[in-house]
Structure formats: C-alpha cells, structure tokens
Amino acid sequence: MKRSNTIYLDHASGTNLLPEVKQQLSDWLDSSVANPSSIHNEGRRSAADLDEARSGIANVLGCKPSEILFTSGGTEANNLAILGTAEALKEKGSHIITCETEHPSVLESFKALEKNGFRVTYLEVDGNGDVDPDDFRASITDESILASFMWVNNETGIRHPIEELAEIARARGIRFHCDAVQAFGHTHIQLHNSVVDSLALSGHKLGAPAGIGALYLRKGHAISRKSFGGSQEQNVRAGTPNHIGAVALGTAIKSHAKNLDANTIKYDELSKHLQNQLKTLPGILLNRQGKQYTPNIVSCSFRQVDGEALFIRLDMKNIAVSNGAACSSGSQAPSHVLTALGFDEKLAQATLRISMGIGTTRDEIDDFCEELKQIVTSIYRDTE
User: Could you give the dihedral angle defined by the CA atoms of residues 245, 246, 251 and 253, in that order, rounded to the nearest 10 degrees?
Assistant: First the structure.
C-alpha cells in the first residue's frame, strides 16, 4: 500500500519553508509591496526592507552590505560571478580552472567561456571526490585569472578544502569563486577573515521560496554585467529586485546562523543513525570514505541492483530521495559526479542521495530504512 504521508529525504534539492518565512509570506498576502526603485513612500518602504535584508545577510556572512547582490538563485549567482569575472579580466589572461565534479551551473559557464576562447583546466578528483590542493597549485599559469570550486558537493556531500584552495589562488593573484549553495546552514562561513572573492547562495535550499539567491562579491572586484536596463544591484544585475524573496532569504539566513550549532548536532546524530542502519543492507556501498562531509547528505549505492526498479518502488512507497543522475530526454544518464568517481553506469543509477532537513526526524529515518531494506531485499530475490 502507498503511504498517505511522504518520507521526504531530498532536502538538498529543495527544502520546506521555515516557519518564520511562512509567517512573512502570509503577512504579505494582505499588504501592498511597491517597487523598491519608486520614489514615493511605499517604494521607499520596500527599499528599506531590501536594505535591511541585505544588511542582515552581510552581518551573518561578515561582509559589507554593498558586497551582497540579489539574484534569482544559485545558478544565476554562479553564472554572474564566473562569466562576469572572466570577461572583466580577459585582458590579463585567458586561463580558468575548476574541477570535474562541480554543479552544472558552474561547468556550463566554463564551457561557454571555452567556446569564447578561454582555456579551461578541469581538475580530476580522487575516488572519493576530493580535490588535491597540490594539483590546483600545479595547474596555475601566468595566464590564469579565475578558479571556481564548490564548498560542498551537492551529490556526495564531500567538503572541499575551500580556504586552502582560496589561499593558493590569492598567492598567485587569481580570483576565487565558491559555490556555497550546499554549504551554508551546515558550515561556519565568515568572509571577513576569508580570501574567497565571490560566493553563491540559494534560497530554496535554506527554507526561503525558490527564485531568490545571493552573490557575495568582494568590494573592488569589478565584473562585467550580464543584463541591461536599470542600475539595480550595484549596476551589475538590471531589473526590479525580488523584494519578497530577498526579505525571506534574509530571514532564512539569519535563522540558520542562529541555529547552526544546534542543527549541526542534530544532523550529526541523524547521519550516524542513518549510516548505522544502511550498513546492514545487502550489497550496499556507503560513498563516504573521504576526509570531511556535510552531515545532512549521505550517498550510498547498491551492487547488482536495477536502479530504475529501485526508484520506482521507492516512489510507490511515497519516499522522496534523489539518485544524483541527470535526466536527459526522458532517459537516465549517469551522473557526471559519480562517473568522475569511477562508478560504472549501473552502479551510478543504483545510487541514492539521502539528504535531511531541519524537520527530519529519527522516526522518518527508521521508517525509510525499513522500507528500503524490504525493497532492496525484494529486488535481490526477484533477480535470483
């Protein structure tokens, strides 16, 4: 029987709205929200809300309010930082560096630059998905102008040594961008003592609505604008700001900062409990052998299990997880991240990304593991 309630363990894709954000949205339903660029009183009120949200985010991150630009999400923030920085610095050089397991919004930005004459180095990762700082150091040339690495991998949860990588970049005089979409809320991020030059955040990973994100851009680091019209967002991103989304993002970011330590303890406990149960399942591989991982994401794979059958049966039980494989034209293709880790197609497609959120409970984990055990055992039995 299909359960009436969903076991939702795909929070790395998008998580529930925070209670305080829900309350804000409810209050706004009965109020008028004017264009923040308008000169009348209502417009000034909206502008003040926007300024307050920007200042709140800057205070949490340890930077200046003028260094926070609102975007439509993490993808646009990554696009803007990478494309804008490369084009602004192209007179200084044409070599840019990233790694092969980055988010598509980063990889596709680099591919676009590659088509426009830039030379790209895609660093390989080891079998756990780790980036070797020595490989990064060796890849830098006199023509290098930009490097981009994600703080936490969105499929495996592995943490890259971002500050070490950023220090290497700073020592060689190249800009350093970081996709921190999966890191914020699970990692202490303080930019006042960091050498990261730009950093991307996404609202719907943090309990704000989809369609809002933010880009931290260090003061004095000009980038080429990618949209044209008004002079909003430091004359970098034209268009009326998502006022409601920005305020919600500010609220969500402050909430995560306030509760980071308590939430980390909770995620650590849930992660250990989950992994202890997963280890008892037949044919399982826990993809967690590297140095450091975010506690809210656990990746596992099943040997000799049909991935399609696995996900169909999970869905029939109303269990929401991700497999980390991109869909293309209606057919599953192996995830570029798992391929880089050396997974063959069958193992990649039988891989689960289990990601927990603030509302995830121990009972949910227990129910999920019990259902998963029955499903995997059944699949093995059917193939005998």
Answer: 110
Q: How far apart are CA 375 and CA 134, in angstroms?
A: 43
**Residues 198, 7 contacting (CB under 8 angstroms):** no
Report the alpha-carbon distance of residue 128 to residue 290 in Å, rounded: 5
Q: What domains, with CATH codes, occur in the chain? A: 7-16+260-383 (3.90.1150.10), 19-256 (3.40.640.10)
Contact 34, 46 (CB under 8 A): yes
pLDDT band at 45 (very low <50, low <70, confident <90, very high): confident
> Hey, which bits of 244-348 come out as E strands?
284-286, 297-302, 319-320, 327-328, 331-332
State pTM to two decimals: 0.93
CA distance 57 to 53: 6
- Using an 8 Å Cβ cutoff, are 292 and 160 in contact? no
Which residues are marked as active site? 327
Confidence grade of residue 328 (pLDDT, cut at 50, 70, 90): very low
